[in-house]
Amino acid sequence: MNLAYRDIRHNLFRFLLTCIGLGLLLGVVLAMIGIYRGLVVDALTIARAPAVDLWVVEANTRGPFAEASRIPGDIREAIARIAGVASAGSITYQTVETEHRGGKLRLYVIGYEPTRPGGPPEISEGRAIARSHYEMVADRSSGLVLGDRIGLGRNVFSVVGLTRHQVNSGGDPAVYITLRDAQKLQFDLAPPAARVQLARGTGGASRDTVNAVVARLQPNSSPDAVAETVRQWKHLAAITQEAQELILTRSLVDRARRQIGLFTSLLLVVSAVIIALIIYTMTMEKLRQIATLKLIGAPDRTIIGMIVQQAMALGLIGFAIGATLIVVIKDYFPRRVVLEPDNVIVLGLIVFTVCLVSSGLGVRAALRVDPATALGG
Amino acid sequence: MATAVSSTPLVRVDRISKHFGEGETRVDALREVSIDVYPGQVVALLGPSGSGKTTLLNVIGCILDPSSGSMELDGEVVIENGRWLRSNLRQLRLDKIGFIFQFHNLIPFLDATDNVALVLQLAGADAAPARRRAVELLDYLEVGHRKSAMPAKLSGGEAQRVAIARALANRPRIILADEPTAALDSKRAGIVMDLLRKVAVEQEAAIIAVTHDEKIFDRFDHIFSLRDGRLDSEHDTSRAA
Ligand SMILES: Nc1ncnc2c1ncn2[C@@H]1O[C@H](COP(=O)(O)OP(=O)(O)OP(=O)(O)O)[C@@H](O)[C@H]1O
Ligand SMILES: [Mg+2]
Questions:
Q1: How large is the ipTM?
Q2: Is A294–B178 a contact, with Cβ atoms under 8 angstroms apart?
Q3: Is pTM, for the whole model, over 0.80?
């Protein structure tokens, strides 16, 4: 007969309650890990969306995300002509706050050239932008739906397509409009004085300004080599996709990432201590029964088996509850919660190890108990 | 041969001493106690509180190291000059010794049948035959009707009889009982003593019981009185004689 199971069955309600408590705790740990991963994934999303190999930005900047970058729009043609470049596109990025259905809506507006790199990666509903003006592809997280009309600057855009999970590193939902519309929007929203200068064509600024030019390379050409060529234009800098992703994770969300990372580690330690405490207490409560078992001749492995199996059952059920909980509620979080199987497996292994170690403590106490204590009153 | 077997004690305690602590705090719980108990005998350990009865029982039950002396159980020398000659004492207990506690100490999460079946399974029996024999034993002890009850639901007398069934399950030749009847009324106490007697006779077992219970003194073949850790007197009440 399995003593671990029989004991659990006898105190089933209490055991389940403990499992649920542990499950909630592990759910929080998983959520934290998911939020942490979500932050990193979100930060990379916008940089990965255009699926390019090279970012051409203003000289001496790490743009367009970590630092502001402004370059002339006609650079794109020059970039496209460099050997090894397959295609290039101009992009603008700006954060715009607007009104929608009586509420404020913060959007990360991406302007791109519909026939060139820089557009939304995948349209989950509706279609891509087909007309050169006033159409928009919006991310679902903005709350916009197909057919919505929304004012940006002086124009009204209609939502023709929807994407999923396209947000910037601050969590603002992305919307895509044509480069021309975006440049008009930048002009409309610029301070009046700058606008006058721009309209006159004075002050060295032109209306054809973009934040970055992105380039896709031919399969066998090296991003570093092309970047080197681009850098020969003194007013430009070139950042490979790899370097761009590094900038995003290392500098842009670094503090937030470390903050959440540290909190997650703390939470892990707290959970480990709580698991150890629960299992140790579970064993200590049974010391008298364990003494009786020893007295009637039960070998150590029977006693160890009982303790270890209960610890494992607790860990397993608690973990299953926590994981299920998080899978069910993760889409209700305001920002993305990303749970990769490897994170779940690692947490599972940690829980398993903690259970094993703390049942070791219990086992130690159990093996030390004197069978004679079963006899005493 | 038959007389030779029965004249060999099942339990031979030879000048066993046991002290706890040293110096100022030293307590001599047992001082050179020697007793022999033969198959079929039901003997009592008697004495005032603190006289060493439980200590002696624990040494015989192989759960306490003596300070000096020797002991033989069922013909095997297990302690020589205060040292164990056996390393696996738990196996020895499982094979040879049954315990009956003052507080029955049933495993609370197993029902009556499984409390008994557990020791059979620990000794290597399969689940089904173990449960069958457990139910037989419970019937034998007249608690068969409570076989599926959890210990918390048993009365004191019922629980004690389940505990006795557990002590008897592996047919141990030595049964140790610390105040087995203390929690029972005199009628139930009498029934338990009759049972122990029956087991002693039918299984050729030696039964050693600590008791304060004067009502049942006449049920013992032999009474060993302890005082301050010393054997004070031996009193043969054997009805067979
Ligand atoms: N583990 C121990 N450590 C120290 N002293 C002990 C220990 N166990 C027993 N003693 C002492 O040894 C002496 C004998 O104790 P024991 O328990 O054998 O008495 P007893 O005859 O069973 O008494 P009672 O009738 O009260 O159960 C007592 O003085 C007791 O205090
Ligand atoms: Mg005692």
A1: 0.81
A2: no
A3: no
